[in-house]
Amino acid sequence: MKMTFRGWGREVKPHTHSVTPVQSKNGKWMPQSAGEPLEWDGPLTAHGKLSNLGLSGSFLVELAFEEQEIQNWLTEYVKAHPENALRVLARAQAEATIALSTWQRATSSP
Q1: In the chain, what is the straight-line distance between the N-terminal and C-terminal CA atoms, in Å?
Q2: Which range of residues forms the domain containing residue 21?
């Protein structure tokens, strides 16, 4: 995951930082391989380490997830909340079907 911080109301320069995945071992957080996707700890939480972060003030934060991180989240969400996950997936499947149909019509037009 990448996090970009932009000054709220006044941006001097964006600050982009990669989040390093961490794992809890014996009550202590240990960094994992940098550049790897985050593993979700549960249906709604993931932990990571930000290095060299020195910001003060208010910022707009952009969270950019890798596809694998979204898949990791969905796996944990399904385990923790299977009924809710089915509803989310059903709506997502319907939206994906509509989007795919629209995309196919747009790309096959002469």
Answers
A1: 39
A2: 2-108
